[in-house]
Amino acid sequence: MNILKTHHLVSFLSIFLIFSSCGSKKTTINSEATASDSKVLSKKIEQIKTPNNDYQLVWADEFDYSGLPDSTKWNYDIGGHGWGNNEKQIYLEKSFENSYVKDGKLHIAALKKGHENMQYTSARLTTYDRFLIQYGKIEVKAKLPEGKGTWPAIWMLPETIRTKEEEWPLCGEIDIMEHVGKDPNMVHVSLHTELYNFWKKNQYTHFERLPDVFNDFHLYGIEWTTNSIKFFIDNKLFYEAIKGENGKVTANEGWPFEKPYYLILNLAIGGNWGGDVDDTIFPAEMEIDYVRMYQTVEPKN
């Protein structure tokens, strides 16, 4: 998923620990979640197991509330200008039809519904201006929409594209998961850079067909270090991109993954890759069970 300052690399772990010691359950709300509204978590921190002793949880949304996505954690990208891919949807902000939390899941829904000059509405959530991460582990447990024309993505862009310090693809892009409905169950992971990107058809990439991405939740994630980005599906190594592999350039033009990035969850419709749209599939939804981000534990002296 390609296109084209304030940020908080703060740890939420201490907050979670306080909540867990209270033994309370998160309040169910019918409107937008806020910091004052959501003081406790029903899924205690001890239930969120860290992948291993090398990581600590620094940010999470377990979606154990109801209403709009928590505004202390999520922002929206909005608009319907094609997003560089001739996409056919318009992304709306704070629309209960297009992004809502219910029954412990985040729902990102695309509808065949005219809005302004677009035929479809959807949502694109980001952690920009809420949380940035540089190196660590990211996990998103998701179930994908079925049908031709759907294009769900779990991906990342750096802060520098928002501050206009860099344009795409110089800024870099990390695609944790992409799927297009015209090719069912084929899951793609990719890295895009100035020198290696889909325009040039030489990006870092790998794709395989999974058992059932429409009816089953799968865990999509990365482990990101200074020298590599490993992609995992259901905790199994799916692909590893290594800095400088096969003689690739290690400067920013070839490996722009040494700066803070933010997470994006969206459901696009149609476009250059999404292709023709089957209008009988709507509403189409991507469901997210949880999002968790970890950072490396610093060794103790």
Question: How would you characterize the overall build of this protein?
Answer:
- The model is unreliable at 3-45 (pLDDT under 50).
- The chain has 3 helices and 17 strands.
- The longest helix is centred in the first third of the chain and has 10 residues, at 13-22.
- It has one domain: Jelly Rolls (Sandwich), CATH 2.60.120.
- It has helices at residues 13-22, 159-162, 271-274; strands at 55-61, 75-76, 89-91, 99-102, 105-115, 118-122, 124-126, 136-143, 150-158, 173-178, 186-192, 204-209, 218-224, 228-233, 236-242, 261-269, 284-296.
- The strands form 2 sheets. Strands 1, 3, 4, 5, 6, 8, 13, 14, 15 and 17 form a 10-stranded mixed sheet that branches. It has a 7-stranded antiparallel sheet with strand order 2-7-16-9-10-11-12.
- It has 301 residues and is mainly β.
